[in-house]
Structures are given as C-alpha cells and as structure tokens.
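Example 3.2
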Amino acid sequence: MPTNTSQSRRRRFACGLAFCVLVLFQILVGQPFAQEAKKIRIGYSALSLSFLPQLFARDAGVFQKHGLTVELIQMAGPIQVAALAAGEIDFGAAVSPALFAAVRGLPLRGVMITVRTPLFYIVSQPSLKRIGDLVGKTVAVDTIGALQYIAARAMFKKKGVNPDQISYIQTGSVSNSLAALNSGAVNGALLSIPQQRDHDAKGI
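Structure, written as tokens:
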C-alpha cells in the first residue's frame, strides 16, 4: 500500500514532468511563431531613383533587421490606390495618386516622404534638339492631373515654354511612357533615373 510520502513524490514528479513538457512545447512550437517576421506588402511604381529607399531597404536587409518581411510589388500608381482600398497591399509608394484619392474621401494616410523634390527628366526623340521643339507635339506622362503631369508643366514653364502648347498623353505608368517614346508613339516623355538612360532618345 503506497504511503503518503510516495504519493507526494509521485505528484511532485507528475507536476514537474508536466511543467517540463510545457516548457519544451513552448520552445519547439511557440518560439518560432514568436520570432516570425511580420509580412508587409508595399507597392511601388517603377525601378527608378524615386523608389530607391524602398529597394535599398529590401536589398540591404534593413527591413529584416527590424523584424519585417517585406514584399515589394511593382504596379502603377492608380492600381496601388485600388490595392490599398481592397487591402491587397499595406503601403503604397506612389504619392500623388494616393493624395488625389484621399481628397476624394478614401481613408488613406501619409506616413513618410522619401524624396524632397520629384526626380524627373523631360526626354525626347533624338531629332528634337531643344525643349522648345516639343511645342505642338506629344509628351507622355503616367496620369493626367497627377504628379508627373504637374511636374512636366512646371518644367516647361521654367524653361520658357508655354505648357498649354504641349499635348500630354496618359500612359498609365513610367514603363508605358518609355515604351511609347521608344516606339515613336510620342515625341517626349517624363522619365526618371534609370529610365532616361535605357533608351536611345536624347534628354533635353
């Protein structure tokens, strides 16, 4: 017949074993979940200098250093806004489409600006030698009324060219603008580094 002492030892052993199993379970199962990096999806418009901070942070391991697993997804600015509204991405790096959407009532919030000024160049076909040669011709921008359109008009005005004498063509993305320029569908385009180096047109 077991004594009170032996029963007490068995209870202590059972409690100790249960505690060890619980700790082991937490180490083997719970710990990986505790250390699992949070996945963030960020939209960006193009492989250009304008989005260098996001690309550098990914490739240099800055996101991982802070416990974040980041997926950068290339998409045009308006598509980023739609993806944000649908919850398909967490952040969008295209500023002007998001600002216009916020003005229309979409609940978006700006959390960071990574460039002081837009990094754009007006680039033309090789036959055009001066910026004034684009008067009466077509210039591609990603979206009429958005940042590229506003910047193009400001750049023309600064160079003494009436921006109202330029025909602006909406292409939907910087990549499409570059393709339109290279194919001859437009006479000029607003591009950013490195797009303005990736074709045989002459920068003005």
